[in-house]
């Protein structure tokens, strides 16, 4: 029932009102343990490093697999279609 959904976005506890916000979606970018086998860690990424270091408290990673995007289990890998459909929806839509 669409009438029962409150579409007003609640204020974020850490972000001040009236300030700019960037949502950056990096398809294929993942963050894992920093070792020599992690291509993101060993790559030269000055722009992303600058963004992350400039406001580390506002740098947030989101899950793009499993129940976080509406897939049945943690073992279900996400993909662009599932992730893009789930991002910003405000709730989880069953995908599986």
From TrEMBL:
Residues 20-87 form the Metalloenzyme domain. Pfam families: Metalloenzyme. Gene3D superfamilies: Alkaline Phosphatase, subunit A. One of its GO terms (molecular function) is phosphoglycerate mutase activity. InterPro entries: Alkaline_phosphatase_core_sf, Metalloenzyme, Pgm_bpd_ind. GO terms for biological process: glucose catabolic process. It comes from the Eukaryota. This is Metalloenzyme domain-containing protein.
């Amino acid at each position: 029932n669409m009438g029962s959904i409150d579409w007003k976005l609640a204020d974020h506890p850490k972000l001040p009102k009236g300030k700019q916000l960037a949502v950056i979606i990096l398809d294929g970018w993942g963050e894992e343990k920093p070792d020599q086998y992690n291509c993101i860690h060993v790559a030269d990424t000055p722009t992303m490093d600058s963004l992350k270091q400039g406001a580390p408290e506002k740098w947030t990673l989101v899950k793009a697999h499993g129940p976080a995007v509406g897939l049945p289990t943690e073992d279900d890998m996400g993909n662009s279609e599932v992730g893009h459909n789930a991002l910003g929806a405000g709730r989880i839509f069953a995908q599986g």
